[in-house]
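Many introductory courses stop at the sequence. We go one step further.
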Amino acid sequence: MRRYPKNAGFTLIELMIVVVIIGLLAMLAIPRFMAVSTKSKQSEARLILKQIYINQRAYRQAGISYYLPAGPASASNPFAFRDITIEISSKSRYTYTINGDANTFTATATSSILDDDPIQDIWQIDDGGNLTCVSDDAML
């Protein structure tokens, strides 16, 4: 049977070095994680804007003009785009607006609650299907 000395174990310096290494790794990883998390939240805006584009095209083919709602759609007003069969989730982070006239439209998604900074995240899609990021809150 093997006997261990009474003072076997880690020294305080060894434990402090491990804590410092873990702290450095966390310092590098947490900001990157937050940026990637914000990027993933932007997929909501891209998805809904593409849905608005497709439904706007179908609405125009059925009638003579694009649909122009009276007000914005958001989590607090989920049925504002009911005429083009789009319902906004109660957990939505964005507010959606549609502007234009009978022949053109631009749909915009705006959010300022993706992360803890005051920068707004703004995405737009036009009647040609061009999806653009006007203001990116998740700059990597």
